[in-house]
Amino acid sequence: MIDLHLLAYDWRLALVIVNWLLCSMVGWACLCRFAAMSRHTTRRRYRVAYVAVFMAATLSGFSWLWFGEWPGPGQLSMAAAWLALLGVNAGNWTNGPPEYAKSAPDAFDDLPHHHWGSIVGRGKDS
Question: Is the pTM of this model over 0.85?
Answer without folding.
Answer: no
